[in-house]
Design brief:
The chain is mainly alpha-helical and 90 residues long. Helices cover 76% and strands 4% of the residues.
């Protein structure tokens, strides 16, 4: 595989990861917090309505988790394409 093809493949996979993670984030923050809030508010967790919880706290928790997922995915992708930050690449 040529160098430019490897770069395109690497960037394409990165964009797929970003797209998937942003879709999850949008679903949780906008979907659960705004669009489906009435249906989720019928469920209570710790005395709070689930739709309210997602709008106030759940989307933030999911966002932080998605940051760690992205780091793990990118470390794996970097290693696969041999661009990881190891001693041999410095």
């Amino acid at each position: 595989m040529t160098d430019s093809a490897r770069k395109r493949d690497y960037w394409g996979r990165n964009l797929k990861y970003v797209g998937a993670l942003l879709t999850i984030w949008w679903t949780v923050s906008f979907g659960f917090g705004i669009l489906f809030v009435e249906q989720l508010n019928t469920i209570r967790i710790g005395g709070f309505q689930l739709g309210f919880w997602f709008a106030q706290q759940g989307s933030i928790y999911v966002f932080v988790i998605l940051i760690f997922v992205y780091v793990k995915l990118m470390n794996r992708l970097d290693h696969e394409f041999d661009v990881d930050e190891t001693e041999k690449n410095r």
